[in-house]
Amino acid sequence: MVKFLHETHQKRKVTLVSKDINIRIKAHAFGLAAEDYFNDKVLEDTDLLFSGILELPTDFWDKHCKEMESWQQSGHTFYRIRGSLCMNFLINQFVYLEHDNPFYAQVKELMGKSAILQTLKDFTHMQNNVRGIIARNREQNFALNILMDPEVDFVTLLGQAGTG
Predict the structure, then answer these.
(1) Selection from 135, 126, 63, 69 nearest residue 104 by Cα
(2) pTM over 0.85
(3) Residue 22, φ and ψ in degrees, nearest 5
């Protein structure tokens, strides 16, 4: 079939895509282009995909705490912040700031130049394990927070095999 397409559509590049190395070798013997099939790389550049994570600038609290409101509810601390950075946030996006006292939060509401951030449950501690599973890094903690959120119906995660 590939040879037929190659001969009948000479102005187009016809390529056989297969996981079978023997078929690819035979195709090359007939002068046909052949490639391996990579099902783990749908896009050429996975950096183009939205990560769902945003590192806050180091001056975040200086610029956004002037009119900040905070309260506690259901074991979480909520912050209503105002500023131009809020316009870049997306609902359910994770934001973080690494320093002596790291800050990890999830964007819960957006209203123009203001946003409500909710602190996260720390799934890196065994006391917060999910059926014996604990997070080993910041990204896994974010993943467990979104997966365990009853208000979120659908979650997609992307990572290399074995990264958890």
Answers:
(1) 135
(2) no
(3) -65, -40
